[in-house]
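in:
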């Protein structure tokens, strides 16, 4: 279960489109920066799911492309038994951003899923788009081609929001092993939230339309199953999905953003932060926060993701440049909430005696640093226990930090652009790395300092709750 939000460029104050959201899987989440890589002509990569997945299948291999793109992504360690690490959001050097969002298929399709299904899983598709796509439209074509050639290993249905500076596409991949998918284009006037991902009416009576894409058997299969009557409107969500259309939370946030877009000042960066942060939508399930400005023709080093290491209600957004050399250790994978780590050690003695599975997957050097994810969860629980007293103060603090960072990010961008233009890309990379590292660690300091203050106030003003039912603001989902 995840949340995605696309804002077309005609609705924003800066004329830039945005893709934002979060993933709410309960396992660990971390930032990964993958470099551009060249691969051997016969290189292959593993994809799919194992017999242990919730919907079982078989792993397989597919050909790798000659070169994969540099990209920044958020990964996590567990969902429904699909092999880790998993990915559901990121940005590549070509300005293509992806969000992975669940989208339940109808029960009959789930029941049709072969027990030996093969092909890329939902995370594989997100990674492959980040590695290969040079436009949002090409991202759709990559998914369509992969499903047609290799199949699709699913867990009950899924979707992706793929966006670039010009447009976005919602892609729904349906369960059942039938090669069914549909994609809808979102233009510069669109405001679209996904939770779950959905596509409604599809103009199948006009196959020449270029704003909807689907495989040749998309309509005929539904009619063979008796799910659609020829000559009637084709509602993809009703025919192949959960049949619920736009969920209540989707309707609420889309209306809120449309109202902000109607103001003379339109939608600003702070409004997009709010849409990911609002306590009506964001709680403990949100593993992180992500806002991607979909920039046009800029040096790839200057592309960026605004990131929080926990649900954005408990952390400020910080810009992370694609041109940074590496992700700070505090924001990489730690053992906290990582699947399988409860039975492993940072000690090689057992591993050397024939039990390699007992050695932790997390390097000792990384584990010796602070964990931004752990710090964020501690703060979130302090905030939510007594949210009536503490939450407004924290939100005001994050907004103040972000307002300062927005000014600094613009200055750093101009400075790095000048260095690149002057033929000094290494100096630009140093500047971007220094800024990103410094501000991510400053944000972590602020989170820990606020948590320390709230712990003292909680202890003496309220005491710590020990009831089994946690407290939190009311949420729509």
């Amino acid at each position: 279960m995840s949340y995605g939000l696309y804002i077309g460029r005609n609705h924003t104050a800066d004329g830039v489109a945005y893709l934002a959201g979060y993933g709410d899987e309960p396992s660990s989440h971390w930032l990964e920066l993958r470099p551009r890589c060249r691969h051997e002509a016969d290189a292959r990569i593993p994809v799919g799911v194992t017999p242990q997945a919730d919907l079982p299948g078989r792993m397989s291999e597919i050909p790798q492309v000659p070169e994969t793109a540099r990209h920044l992504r958020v990964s996590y360690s567990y969902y429904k038994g699909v092999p880790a690490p998993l990915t559901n959001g990121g940005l590549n050097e070509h300005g293509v951003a992806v969000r992975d969002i669940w989208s339940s298929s109808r029960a009959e399709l789930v029941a049709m899923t072969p027990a030996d299904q093969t092909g890329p899983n939902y995370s594989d598709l997100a990674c492959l788009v980040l590695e290969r796509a040079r436009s949002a439209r090409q991202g759709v074509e990559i998914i369509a081609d992969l499903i047609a050639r290799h199949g699709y290993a699913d867990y009950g249905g899924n979707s992706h929001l793929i966006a670039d500076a010009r447009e976005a596409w919602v892609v729904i991949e349906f369960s059942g092993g039938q090669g069914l998918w549909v994609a809808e284009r979102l233009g510069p006037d669109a405001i679209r939230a996904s939770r779950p991902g959905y596509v409604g009416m599809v103009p199948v009576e006009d196959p020449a339309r270029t704003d909807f894409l689907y495989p040749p058997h998309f309509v005929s299969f539904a009619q063979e199953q008796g799910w659609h009557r020829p000559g009637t409107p084709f509602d993809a969500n009703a025919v192949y999905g959960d049949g619920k259309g736009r969920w209540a939370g989707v309707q609420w946030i889309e209306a809120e953003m449309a109202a902000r877009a109607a103001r003379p000042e339109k939608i600003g960066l702070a409004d997009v932060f709010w849409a990911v942060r609002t306590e009506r939508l964001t709680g403990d399930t949100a593993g992180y926060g992500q806002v991607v400005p979909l920039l046009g023709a800029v040096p790839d080093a200057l592309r960026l993701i605004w990131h929080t290491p926990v649900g954005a209600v408990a952390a400020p957004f910080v810009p992370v440049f694609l041109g940074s050399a590496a992700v700070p250790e505090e924001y990489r994978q730690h053992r906290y909430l990582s699947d399988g780590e409860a039975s492993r050690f940072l000690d090689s003695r057992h591993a050397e005696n024939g039990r390699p599975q007992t050695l932790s997957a997390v390097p000792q050097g990384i584990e010796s640093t602070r964990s931004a994810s752990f710090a964020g969860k501690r703060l979130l629980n302090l905030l939510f226990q007594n949210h009536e007293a503490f939450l407004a103060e924290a939100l005001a603090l994050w907004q103040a930090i972000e307002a300062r960072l927005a000014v600094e990010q613009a200055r750093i961008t101009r400075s790095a652009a000048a260095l690149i233009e002057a033929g000094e890309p290494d100096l630009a990379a140093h500047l971007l790395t220094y800024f990103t590292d410094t501000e991510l660690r400053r944000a972590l300091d602020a989170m820990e300092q606020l948590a320390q203050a709230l712990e003292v106030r909680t202890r003496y003003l309220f005491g710590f709750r020990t009831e089994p039912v946690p407290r939190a603001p009311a949420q729509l989902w």
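note: Residues 349 and 359 are 9 Å apart (CA to CA).
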